[in-house]
Design brief:
four-stranded mixed beta sheet, three-stranded mixed beta sheet, single chain, alpha+beta, 34 helices, 11 strands, 6% strand
Length: 747
């Protein structure tokens, strides 16, 4: 009854407002044009009082539920126009005022952007993203100019990529020695020799391995073994019997066969190999641990004798010895090693580097699969991997085949423009020399200080909240505060504990190693990356070591280090700009910082203590309460779907928890000072517009099946619909989609 009374009052106010506007000869349907033209901006801002807006929103809600869309639409347009009065023009340009912010805040914030860009996705891209693409483009355009003049490894690599004439002249010659090496496999001994050589070039077959910090002891590194992967994005692509997935499997066979045919194999042999690859990978998809299981599998210590029981087909000791040996690559390129690595052959021995196993259940199943698989099929699997990995470094006809493959999977239709392709090739192969160039010549260094200040403010809000989390035991609240206090920040570029620049060895160790042939440069860089890990296996893990480069437009939390990495790439417009208001900066970059900080306390990060060591440092009652609260968040996201495929809330849970905490602590840091209601609305809209994006259908389906993040739209809806201050800022009636009766809250 109260809502109806409010609605009646709002109807009268709307009528009076429209009558006043009509004296200017403007009909009710054109009120928004007058508003957007700013003819009476101060009047509109004065009218945007919470009581008036609340009545308008009540009117919209009541009329919508009563099946009277006309007046509901008028109320929405008027309320939206009042709420965005005084917003920056570029933000208004993305907004669709025909959508009520309490109905769908993503469509309200990004609807105009999506409508304008939906049919403008370039043929070489699967999506467009308002904030992320803008930042990437700024870096790319400036860095390409620097690369063209650089004579170091980054510049040399870029030039080798831009030398299209030389690449076309070589054709498939750079690939041939590697394929001949595989074709010479004739028994298990030669199979293992080939596998170890490819492993030393960071291409694994039949299982995975790597060297990283011990999850249980932050002072040492361990050697991991895990399950392998396949060509298509996810197991659904192999196992689902739908027309959509059958088409993807058919394209895989077609493109693979074309690759072999172009490399000189007969059509019969090409078809045979392509079908064998699909058959093997389909069997593989049936035996791999599912992604939800793998995400929570941190590994456990194991002995080589146990590995021999789990997978006796594989000669583990021979494989390890081959991996440790310093060999020359099959293509005759210069070797980057100087001798065998005894430290690798000693893995798993008492007092030496420990052996850890992930996906234990996979290995007996893989053993059976290998026993049933011919050498010819194994050779096909190995050659297909090097072909698809190396195709983008070869002549146009091979890149065209990958375009055909990706067109089916993701909807892309064209090759990248050459300079764009070569930029990303260079960032992938020589990230550290490129990053040093960027920081030295382009990066606006005051942005680093601003980000550090914002991080401290967000951290302070998180620290203030922890003592009030009554679902944690008192001891666990204290431990959580200690973990947050110990969390360190790496901002813009690598620094030591005192904040001094500390560039890693990778910044300079490629000097003189990049030549004129692009494919050879790629393989040398792959081998060098593995060699670095071999050399450093006995070194104590460096807590502040970067796993990404400063060029990355993103941010990261490392659970095994308990630190945040905020690359220089994201410290720019539209995420952060000194010309922007606090509301925009905190809503975008501030939320990203809070998001990464909350990762330290998500369903994965919360298992690691202040030192970054994995163990049960919470009491059982705290763990049970966390599970209940986090599952509530997971259930919210599992209700969202794209093209009939639901988000897997258990798989995206870590990111969804981080979004929930990120928006809360960024908002609290922002409102630590008095803020107007308009500023608060700008804050939330800035957050939402960070995620404005359009995506091809095929790519969106792939993302919902594979990405640990929920689709962008649902990140906005899921985070804000559970947050009361958002409801208050936009006067959302309880019971609307963005202000549900019951909400989930964790931190």
């Amino acid at each position: 009854r109260q809502a109806v009374a409010y609605a009646a009052g709002a109807m009268l106010m709307v009528s009076m407002f429209l009558m006043a506007m009509s004296t200017r000869g403007v009909g009710g349907g054109l009120v928004l044009v007058t508003v957007s033209d700013g003819l009476n901006e101060r009047f509109l801002q004065a009218s945007a009082r919470s009581d008036f807006l609340s009545r308008l929103q009540d009117l919209w809600f009541v009329e919508s539920n009563a099946g009277r869309p006309g007046l509901a639409a008028d109320a929405t347009k008027l309320a939206a126009s009042l709420q965005i009065a005084g917003f920056p023009k570029d933000m208004v340009g993305n907004i669709d005022v025909t959508v009520n912010p309490c109905e769908d805040f993503y469509e309200f914030s990004c609807g105009a952007y999506d409508e304008e860009h939906r049919d403008k996705i370039p043929g070489f891209k699967s999506s467009l993203a308002f904030a992320w693409d803008a930042a990437e483009k700024t870096i790319r355009n400036k860095e390409i100019e620097v690369l063209q003049a650089d004579s170091g490894p980054a510049g040399s690599l870029f030039k080798s990529c831009m030398d299209v004439d030389a690449i076309e002249k070589l054709g498939n010659k750079p690939l041939k020695p590697w394929l001949e090496f595989i074709d010479n496999i004739h028994d298990k001994k030669s199979l293992v020799e080939a596998c170890t050589e490819f492993s030393k070039h960071d291409m694994d077959n039949f299982f995975g391995w790597w060297i990283s910090q011990d999850p249980h002891d932050a002072t040492r590194k361990v050697f991991f073994l895990s399950q392998t992967g396949y060509t298509l994005p996810e197991r659904t692509y192999y196992l689902e019997d739908s027309a959509e997935m059958r088409k993807h499997r058919s394209t895989l066979v077609t493109v693979t066969s074309k690759f072999y045919a172009k490399l000189g194999y007969s059509q019969q042999e090409s078809d045979k190999r392509a079908n064998a690859i699909l058959e093997f990978e389909t069997k593989l998809a049936k035996i791999l641990d599912q992604k939800e299981v793998t995400r929570k599998d941190h590994g456990k210590p194991i002995e080589w004798s146990k590995m021999e029981e789990l997978m006796p087909y594989w000669p583990w000791k021979d494989w390890l010895k081959g991996l440790a040996s310093c060999t020359s690559p099959p293509d005759g390129a210069a070797s980057v090693c100087t001798g065998d690595h005894a430290a690798i052959t000693e893995v798993g021995q008492p007092g030496k580097t420990h052996l850890y196993l992930i996906n234990e259940a996979f290995f007996p199943k893989m053993n059976k699969l290998l026993e049933e698989t011919s050498f010819d099929t194994m050779k096909a699997i190995m050659s297909w991997q090097v072909m698809r990995n190396g195709a983008i470094f070869l002549s146009a006809e091979y890149i065209d085949l990958m375009v055909e493959f990706n067109a089916d999977l993701f909807g892309t239709k064209q090759k990248n423009p050459r300079d764009r392709k070569c930029y990303y090739t260079t960032t992938g192969i020589t990230p550290w020399p490129m990053s040093k160039l960027y920081i030295d010549t382009i990066f606006h260094k005051p942005n680093r200080d601003a980000a550090l200040s914002m991080l401290d403010e967000v951290k302070a809000q998180f620290m203030t909240a922890l003592p009030n989390e009554q679902w944690l035991t008192a001891a666990d609240r204290t431990a959580a505060q200690n973990k947050l206090a110990e969390m360190f920040f790496q901002v813009a570029y690598p620094t030591d504990a005192n904040g001094n620049a500390a560039w890693p060895k990778e910044t300079t160790d490629m000097e003189g190693k990049m030549g004129s042939q692009l494919f050879v440069n790629y393989m040398v860089a792959q081998r060098l990356a593995v060699e670095r890990d071999f050399v450093k296996i006995y070194e104590k893990p460096k807590r502040r070591e970067w796993s990404s480069s400063p060029l990355t437009v993103n941010a990261f939390y490392g659970p095994s280090s308990n630190g945040l990495w905020i690359p220089a790439g994201i410290l720019q417009s539209p995420f952060f700009d000194t010309e922007n208001s606090d509301a925009r900066n905190y809503g975008s970059l501030g939320m990203v910082l809070g998001h990464e900080m909350t990762h330290g306390f998500d369903d994965n990060g919360r298992q690691y203590d202040a030192r970054g060591e994995l163990h049960d440092w919470w009491h059982p009652e705290s763990i049970d309460a966390f599970a209940q609260k986090s599952q509530c968040i997971g259930d919210v996201f599992s209700k969202y779907s794209i093209d009939g495929r639901h988000v897997n809330g258990n798989y995206t849970m870590g990111e969804d928890i981080a979004d929930s905490g990120g928006i809360k602590f960024a908002y609290q840091a922002f409102t630590a000072k008095p803020r107007t209601m308009q500023e608060k609305r700008i804050f939330f809209t800035s957050f939402a517009q960070t995620w404005c994006s359009v995506e091809r259908k095929k790519s969106a389906v792939s993302a919902v099946l594979t990405d640990t993040h929920a689709p962008s739209k649902f990140r906005v809806l899921g985070a804000l619909s559970q947050y009361v201050p958002f409801q208050e800022a936009f006067s959302c009636p309880v019971g609307t989609p963005m202000a549900p009766q019951e909400r989930c809250a964790l931190w």
